[in-house]
Hints:
Number of domains: 2
Order of helices and strands: EEHHHHEEEEEEE
Number of helices: 4
Number of strands: 9
Strand order of the largest sheet: 3-4-7
Low-confidence stretches: 93-103
Shape: globular
Radius of gyration: 18 Å
Structural class: alpha+beta
Largest sheet: 3 strands, antiparallel
Amino acid sequence: MPTTEYLNGEDVTIEATFRKYPDWATSIVDHGAFLNQNSRYRNLLGVKNYSTVAWDLQNDGYATAPNYATSLINAIQDYDLQEWDQEAFTGNTGSTTTTTGNHRSGTYTFIQNSNIQTEPSLSAPIIGVYYPGDVVNYTGQIKAEGYTWL
């Protein structure tokens, strides 16, 4: 099938082979086996930080797009998929959220060190740190710079 790859600084359409699966679960199992059995991706095994995994995947050559890691991280954060990691790693969903209109509030339990900043920006001054196990009650969320800020 035709697919777009990024080669020598340009988007190029190539013909590539793709696998076909009878169902979603078989696809997921095969993808996990592919990453586990391919020595190029050994550095991913046991890593629990999705951002680190995304950057390692890009650096390992998993995708040719120069913005692959950023796109993957943004998708994870836009859809709160990191909460699945927390549940898988700890059995704890990590947060409870209530939604009223567009306003989300709830509690969040941190699973890794997270800086406390004066505003939702990576360049904002750091004024403290939340540590694994710390719980915060929040009254809103803001999506900025590819992150969800409480």
